Amino acid sequence: MRSLASIVLGFESLVLALVTPVMISVADVRPAVAVPVCIGLAVLALLATGLLRNRVGYALGWVVQAGAVGLGFVVPVMFVLGLAFASFWVAAIVLGRRIEEAKKAQQAHTG
């Protein structure tokens, strides 16, 4: 589960960083606001990636998903991107748990 979740958060951090110039040039958001918000979310995504060994990492991951979707109120295309990444996040968690359960069942069966 952790590897899938870290992939999602890693790519999402890149997208969040790239949203900064979009917010400044397209949405006319002041750089003093856009930079801390977007780069802050990107750094939070990377921090969450590093903390995925604990529940804290997953909680921060959910915060990042909410923040990414929330950026849609400023840059409407972020509703689409934020929801896409939130969907990938949910899929990573669900599929990751299934993979872990299958591995445990396989180990119990063979060992």
Mind explaining what this structure looks like?
By secondary structure, the chain is mostly helical. The protein is 85% helix and 0% strand. The longest helix is centred in the last third of the chain and has 34 residues. The two termini are 22 Å apart. Keywords: Membrane, Transmembrane, Transmembrane helix. Pfam families: DUF4233.
Helices and strands in order:
Blueprint: H1 2-25, H2 31-50, H3 55-70, H4 77-110
Quick gist of this model?
The protein is an all-alpha fold and 111 residues long. The protein is built from four helices and no strands. Helix 1 runs antiparallel to helix 4 and helix 3 (55-70) runs antiparallel to helix 4.
Largest sheet: none
Q: Count the DSSP helices.
A: 4
Which structural category fits the helices and strands? mainly alpha
Strand content: under 5%
Distance between the termini: 22 Å
The counted number of beta strands is 0
Q: Count up the domains.
A: 1
Shape annotation: elongated
Radius of gyration from the alpha-carbon trace, in angstroms: 16 Å
Specify the helix fraction band. Answer: over 70%
Low-confidence parts lasting 5 or more residues at pLDDT below 50?
none
* Series of secondary-structure elements, N-terminal to C-terminal: HHHH
Report the mean per-residue pLDDT as an integer. Answer: 94
Write a concise keyword list for the protein shown above.
mainly alpha; elongated; transmembrane helix; membrane; DUF4233; 0% strand; transmembrane; 111 residues
